[in-house]
Amino acid sequence: MRLKKSYGQHLLVSSGVIEALVKQAEIKPDNVVVEIGPGTGNLTRELLKTHLKKLYLLEIDPQMIEELKKIKDSRVVILQEDATKFDFCSLGEELKLVGNLPYNVGSLIVENTVFHKECVPFALYMLQKEVAEKLLKGPSWLSTFLRTFYHVEYVMSVPARFFIPPPKVQSGVIKLIRKEDAPAIEDLKDYKSFLVKLYSMRRKALKKKLREELLKTAGIDPLTRIEQLSISQILLLYNLSKTQEVEER
Ligand code: SAH
């Protein structure tokens, strides 16, 4: 089979790594699992050794779909879908998302996960290591967006030689566990726009991006830069900017 670079196809071929991933997915008998980018099914077959209740496979490439059809297990449902846009919540209310993600769209899949946080209490993703590390600590709008709602844990690094073909970069696995006390934010798209704006021109002082009055009310020095703020300070600014909007109307 010819693997497609455009779909980020790097198949995981180390049984040790595959077993470690499944172990880290902490699968319980009643779990409904969604595997993103199953490819030829290497990780899928290991997942099926657990007692999971149902396994949805989200794969974009029709050629891979043909391969996946060879897996005979009544718990499997194959869906030809784009995981960057897919409505995960259409599959259930308590999902476990797992995948060796296509690295070219890894960040978009993480973003789409946050947009469906209501039905995703847990995810285990393998990404480009650099991307995984940046999600863990920031600074980036996506890291803050993610960490507003999830605890992010670094699980392990995986060297390129465990894949066919080997990618040019190292890989990193992260675990996302939804925060029980996550803030209620009504409009996630609006929160995203707010963060994108704050993190653009990262080195500029906050007073270039927000009204000084807002910063004063929040007790934040207008000369502060975004990477110096904690998530709770960012949330405070966001909530204050919303109340001020209402008052201005
Ligand atoms: N999990 C497999 C394959 C990983 S490669 C393994 O570890 O061996 C990434 C897989 O994601 C490929 O099969 C690729 O076709 C698929 N893919 C790429 N873009 C996708 C997208 N937007 N939505 C769903 N799957 C995608």
Automatic annotation (TrEMBL):
Ribosomal RNA adenine methylase transferase N-terminal domain residues: 17-180
One Pfam family it belongs to: RrnaAD
Keyword Methyltransferase in record: yes
CDD domains documented for this protein: AdoMet_MTases
EC number, as in UniProt: 2.1.1.182
Function: Specifically dimethylates two adjacent adenosines (A1518 and A1519) in the loop of a conserved hairpin near the 3'-end of 16S rRNA in the 30S particle. May play a critical role in biogenesis of 30S subunits.
Similarity comment text for this entry: Belongs to the class I-like SAM-binding methyltransferase superfamily. rRNA adenine N(6)-methyltransferase family. RsmA subfamily.
Listed name of the protein: Ribosomal RNA small subunit methyltransferase A
Organism, scientific name: Hydrogenobacter hydrogenophilus
Gene: rsmA
